[in-house]
Every structure is written in structure tokens, then in C-alpha cells.
Design a protein that fits this description.
Radius of gyration: 15 Å
Shape: globular
Number of helices: 6
Largest sheet: 5 strands, parallel
Order of helices and strands: EHEHEHEHEHH
Distance between the termini: 9 Å
CATH superfamily: Response regulator
Number of domains: 1
Strand order of the largest sheet: 2-1-3-4-5
CATH class: Alpha Beta
CATH architecture: 3-Layer(aba) Sandwich
């Protein structure tokens, strides 16, 4: 089975490094970007399964990244995170297509559970689009 790729987007270097360590220990391939603009460049060059992005960042925030990423990669799952979120912010993110909206600080367990659930949703969606017969297996390997 192909290693899943997670793109971590946060302007805090320490946070990025910590998230990379946690996710790599779980067996994921992890890419990083310091803001939404840099993340879009990473997405042009790499196949990403899940984007884990802070909301408040310079140049391009997480909400704009969510909308742009989903417009070019509708199958990517986006998890937004923030240290100063409000209920309205989370609802707006979910309406825009985010898989989840999590508050910092969060536990490793909560992070790993959320990422795993996002990947499971992605796999189920691929299964619905590409059944196991015929060319479905070929397309499923590409997108899951």
C-alpha cells in the first residue's frame, strides 16, 4: 500500500516540526509549507491526501487555501486548526469543505484520529467512484 502524504501548513516553525515528527511516526510521508501560498506551490508538484493547515497565516490564510485547494483537488481532505478559533470560524470552514476544524492545543491522539478519519473518508469516496472491478483498481491506487 502506498504511503499517504500529509501537507502541514503553519507559519510557526516549531509547530510544523512537531507535527512532522508525530505524523512521520504514524508512517505518513509529510510535506511542509509556511503559509497558504507556499502550500499551493507544494500542491502543484506533489500528490497530497490530506492538508493540515493553520487558519491564521500571512500571505494566504487557511480558509483561502481550503477553497483554492478544493477547487483544484476536490478529493483532498483539509483539516483546519487554530489557536484562537470561534464556533463561527469552524462552521465556516466546514461549509467551505473542510473535513474538520480542530482547536490548538490538541493531543497526538486527537490529531492521529482526525487524520485517520479523513483518509478513511477519502478511501470510501474513491471506492464509490471507482468500484473494485475493471479500471476501478487502477484509479483507486492513484487517488487513495
Amino acid at each position: 500500500m502506498e504511503k499517504k502524504t500529509i501537507l502541514v501548513v503553519d507559519n510557526g516553525e516549531t509547530i510544523r516540526e512537531t507535527l512532522v515528527k508525530i505524523l512521520e511516526r504514524e508512517g505518513y510521508n509529510v510535506l511542509t509549507a509556511e503559509d497558504g501560498q507556499a502550500a499551493m506551490e507544494v500542491l502543484k508538484e506533489n500528490r497530497v491526501n490530506v492538508i493540515l493547515s493553520d487558519v491564521c497565516m500571512p500571505r494566504m490564510d487557511g480558509n483561502k487555501l481550503l477553497k483554492l485547494a478544493k477547487s483544484i483537488l476536490p478529493d483532498v481532505e483539509v483539516i483546519l486548526m487554530t489557536g484562537h478559533g470561534k464556533t463561527e470560524m469552524g462552521l465556516e470552514a466546514l461549509r467551505a469543505g473542510a473535513f474538520d476544524f480542530i482547536q490548538k492545543p490538541f493531543t497526538k491522539l486527537a490529531l492521529n484520529k482526525t487524520v485517520k478519519q479523513a483518509l478513511e473518508k477519502q478511501a470510501m469516496a474513491a471506492e464509490m467512484r471507482f468500484p473494485k472491478s475493471g479500471y476501478g483498481n487502477y484509479w483507486r491506487r492513484l487517488w487513495t
